[in-house]
Backbone:
């Protein structure tokens, strides 16, 4: 894939290919890019396989723009939007094996609706506990 343009808008990274396709991904997948300044974001170089930002040590592969989910959903979105909530801690509180919980976050596996609600309830419980401090 040959990329002719890279830009940022609406918390997304966009590319235009030489074939005229416009593709995008959410910056929630790339916290360093999300927090980067405009100058840092614009200081990139195109490589054979993707885009490289040396100053923030970030790489985005061209292949990743072809993934089915350009934006995190479900549990992945909750934990990416709230990095202060640690998935390992929630998994431990619920007694869910860490590898399984990781699979939920990467969409390799989907929790049942009942388990998803249990996880969300535990996150809310942490919020209530913190509000009582």
Residues:
């Amino acid at each position: 894939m040959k990329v002719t343009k890279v830009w940022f808008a609406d918390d997304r990274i966009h590319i235009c290919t030489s074939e005229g396709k416009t593709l995008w991904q959410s910056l929630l997948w790339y916290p360093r890019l999300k927090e980067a300044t405009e100058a840092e974001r614009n200081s990139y170089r195109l490589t054979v396989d993707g885009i490289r930002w040396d100053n923030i040590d970030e790489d985005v592969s061209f292949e990743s723009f072809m993934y089915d989910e350009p934006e995190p959903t479900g549990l992945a979105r909750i934990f990416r939007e709230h990095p202060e909530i640690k998935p390992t801690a929630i998994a431990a509180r619920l007694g869910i094996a860490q590898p399984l919980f990781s699979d939920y976050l990467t969409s390799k596996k989907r929790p049942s609706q009942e388990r998803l609600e249990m996880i969300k309830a535990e996150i809310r419980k942490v919020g209530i506990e913190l509000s009582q401090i």
Q: What stands out?
A: The beta strands are 3-9, 12-17, 22-26, 45-46, 50-53, 58-61. The chain has six helices and six strands. The first helix runs from residue 31 to 35. The first strand starts at residue 3 and ends at 9.
